[in-house]
Amino acid sequence: MGKPIVGALAERYLVRRELVGVRGTRVLRFHARCLDRRNDDCDLSEPEPWPALLAKVTDRRGTLAGLYRTLLDPQSADRAPLDPNRKAVGHLLGNRARIGKPTDLLDAGEGLEIMLSLRVALPGLPVVAALSPSHLTVLFLFFYLPASSASTALPMPTRQVAVPQNT
């Protein structure tokens, strides 16, 4: 079972990555001894315990669907010196880590830390993080720059923004 990240190695890891202000986020937890097998199911060796930052993955109804874990180095409070040091378990396809309560505004993207950084920059913005690029599709957004602001602003190019599938 994970515990809150406040005061734990997971909080130190996030602070090192300048992701401050997310300590009360319910989706994030810490586990001091998360068991890891290097070769997944085919590995018959004993799993190694590593501290881990955990992110709860839920479906549209908020039901737990999976878990995303970042294994941490207890000495440096950085990612563990393993390859890979991040893994997901459960049913991730079509599901995501949800940070904040959706309103009429919601930002979606790939990567837990990327979306946490957006949440730090815009604390009131609810975000969802897809935890694998394969769980995303591409949406093209076209931005309109009003003529009245054309003299004071540079034209905004068309941007690609990734959004989760099955929304």
Radius of gyration: 18 Å
**Strand-pairing-aware structural class:** mainly beta
H/E element string?
HEEEEEEHEEE
Poorly predicted segments: 138-146, 149-161
Total strands: 9
Helix content: 10-25%
Mean pLDDT over all positions: 78
Main pleated sheet: 4 strands, antiparallel
Order of strands side by side in the largest beta sheet?
A: 1-2-3-4
What distance lies between the first and last C-alpha atoms, to the nearest angstrom?
Answer: 29 Å
Shape: globular
Question: Which properties best describe this structure?
Answer:
three-stranded mixed β-sheet, mainly beta, 9 strands, four-stranded antiparallel β-sheet, globular, 167 residues
3D structure, described in words:
This protein is mainly beta and 167 residues long. The chain contains 2 helices and 9 strands, in the order H-E-E-E-E-E-E-H-E-E-E. It has helices at residues 9-16, 112-121; strands at residues 28-36, 48-58, 64-71, 86-90, 97-99, 107-110, 127-130, 136-141, 159-164. Strands 1-2-3-4 form a 4-stranded antiparallel β-sheet, with helices on one face. Strands 5-7-6 form a 3-stranded mixed β-sheet, with helices on one face. The two termini are 29 Å apart.
Quick summary:
With 167 residues, the chain is mainly beta. 11% of the residues lie in helices and 34% in strands.
List the helices and strands and how they pair.
Elements: H1 9-16, E1 28-36, E2 48-58, E3 64-71, E4 86-90, E5 97-99, E6 107-110, H2 112-121, E7 127-130, E8 136-141, E9 159-164
Parallel strand pairs: 6-7
Antiparallel strand pairs: 1-2, 2-3, 3-4, 5-7, 8-9
